[in-house]
Amino acid sequence: MIVAGRVPLKPLALNMDAQIVGTAYLLDRCEMGVINIGGAGKVWVDGEALAMAPRDGRCIGMGAEDIAFESDDPDMPAKCDINCAQLVTGPALHSRCLCLLPVRSAR
């Protein structure tokens, strides 16, 4: 299980040591959940910008190699909580899923 946080004042890549994660890249065999608890921002997945409003969540599926975070306004930065839990949930079931979980649809 990997739990991390990012507060990107400028574009900030998520780099992981292959020896630590045991694969060539972090999401080789697992998925990642991201929740933005700060200002508006973006998650970049393999060159594609995915907007995240405050309190939105995203699921990034297995197979994504390059992941970075960016704030729309550095004075009100995005604050991204990251959870990658292969050891808890088992291997990923879906590849290349980029689901948005907007807070406005929460009950």
Q: Any overview of this molecule?
A:
With 107 residues, the chain is mainly beta. The chain has one domain: Jelly Rolls, CATH 2.60.120. It is 7% helix and 37% strand. It contains two helices and nine strands. The protein has helices at residues 18-21, 86-89; strands at residues 2-6, 12-13, 32-36, 41-45, 48-52, 57-60, 67-71, 80-84, 98-101. The strands form two sheets. The protein has a five-stranded antiparallel β-sheet with strand order 1-8-3-6-9, with no helix packed on it. It has a four-stranded antiparallel β-sheet with strand order 2-7-4-5, with no helix packed on it. Strand 4 (41-45) and strand 5 (48-52) form a beta hairpin. 25% of the residues are buried.
